[in-house]
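cron nightly-structures :: item 1 of 1
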Amino acid sequence: MAPPASSAFVVLARRFATSSLRRSHYGEGPGQNMPFSVENRWRLLALMVGFFGSGFALPFVVVRHQLLKK
């Protein structure tokens, strides 16, 4: 590539990098950078029970399925 084309590529890459960094900023304060809301404690409780409960129950469901299978 010729030097002008490579310098234009560098400029475009730099502009993209700075604009993507600006868009990736989270709000300030605790709980703002999480993919779920921690404001409603009952909704958070239901989400956590569902998430951890499914992981805890899965081995028991698999064992029951294997025991009932003929």
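cron nightly-structures :: done
The two ends are 67 Å apart (CA to CA).
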